[in-house]
Amino acid sequence: MAPGFGGNLARRVATALIGLPAILLALFLGPPSLAVGLVAAAVAIGLAEFFRLLRAREIRPLQATGFAVAAALFLDVVSPSWYGAPVWPLAALLLLTVTLHRAATLADTVPAAAATLLGATYLGALGGTIGALRVLSPVAEGAWRMVLLLAIIMAADTAAFFVGLPGFPPARPWKAPSGECSGVSRAPWPSARSACPACRLPTRLPSEWGWRSWGSWATSSRA
């Protein structure tokens, strides 16, 4: 058993014992707007964490614009008729305006704008879809729809937690298409620290290198 496995499992169980009753009470006893508000809060926390990860990669996100785009998409999915017209064109226009405003550093702004749009669109639209489960007709069945979704997510997460124990996946060699590669990397990739000298494939995930490092490797490989 991996070090810290028991503590991690205990924290997960304690969180479920405390959080699940509160969530169920909010879903079944509270108004639909309460469930939608809880989903919106989760989206805001997730987007803030996404922006923190971008800054850790030296990508400066358009934070205020990202939250505005995510909120607009969230409302557009939860209640398509709240504005009377699709919101995403206005959100795209807002992002483009802010991007051009920072045109003095265009080389850094374009990746930042793309990453901001990715996170805001994904989390805003996904969160809106989850919130819409509570307010769709028949509204009385909305709580059960959300409980079904939570059950599926928890079952998948629990399975992934136990399947992800040490030994999964097994070690496997890296081989070039021509069969010339003699280097061997052991899974998971982040544990490897070098590239195969024959096929020059990286033995670390692009997400571990960061976008700029990955681009540098690709450029040097073509040289």
Short synopsis of the structure:
This protein has 223 residues and is mainly alpha-helical.
Structure description:
The chain has 223 residues and is mostly helical. It folds into 2 domains: 7-163, no CATH class; 175-222, no CATH class. Helix content is 66%, strand content 2%. The chain is flat, with a radius of gyration of 22 Å. The chain starts with a helix and ends with a helix. Mean pLDDT is 75; it is low at 179-195 and 197-223.
Work out the strand percent.
under 5%
Total strands: 2
Strand order of the largest sheet: 1-2
Number of domains: 2
- Mean pLDDT score: 75
Keywords:
single chain, 223 residues, mainly alpha, 8 helices, 2 strands, flat, disordered C terminus
